[in-house]
Known about the structure:
The chain is of the alpha/beta class. It has 2 domains: 3-92 and 210-221, Rossmann fold; 95-207, Rossmann fold. The chain is 48% helix and 6% strand. The chain has 11 helices and 4 strands; from the N terminus they run αααααβααβααβαβα. Helix 1 packs across helix 11 and helix 5 runs parallel beside helix 7. The two termini are 24 Å apart.
Amino acid sequence: MGPESTAALFSLIVxxxxxxxxxxxIRIIIDNNPQIPSRVDAIAGAGPSPLEELEQSLxxxxxxHVDLICIPCNLVHYYYDDLQRMTSVPIxxxxxxxxxxxxxxxxxxxxxxxxxxxxTIESGLYKKAFAKVxxxxxxxxxxxxxxxxxxxxxxKGIKSGYISRxxxxxxxxxxGMIQSGAQAVIAGCTEIGLVLGNLRGAPIIDPxxxxxxxxxxxxxxxxxxxx
Length: 227
């Protein structure tokens, strides 16, 4: 997956693991393959499927005898069922875990804004997961979505390494969604989570942070630091 998102997940696991010395941390094997074909292009029918490369990553991790797999990419969960059928190692479903967290810990929330790449929104992954916990998912309007797309994929977008320059634009969109009735905003693209973090005036739910904390719990550590 993307190097920035992979590094962010690793950092979140390290920071949220209750540890007093190096030996208290979880052993983590990272297979970071930026050559996996674009999930956006594949789903649109404009590029090759990423499944072959994703399967190779699964095999690499299996050879390392991992107990659990995390994938720091929202859109790759479009292929989640295919991937889980390829391996006996449990793969955490980041979007399902995010919905479960909201249902258990933020059960007063009934409407969330979703800031994500357009294919992620159109896939319905978030709507389907959050419908199970009775939460409505609201997408940005067309103008806001076009701005989000430019922030992520533009010539000087987040994927090109220009991270901090987009905070103002993305913050304005998040705050606009709150003003339109969302009780919080999901950073439904890992790159968006890298930019927004804890934003004043617009509560942000970061699925990557939730994924990290669930991974810590699944690895039988002490309870991670609270979200």
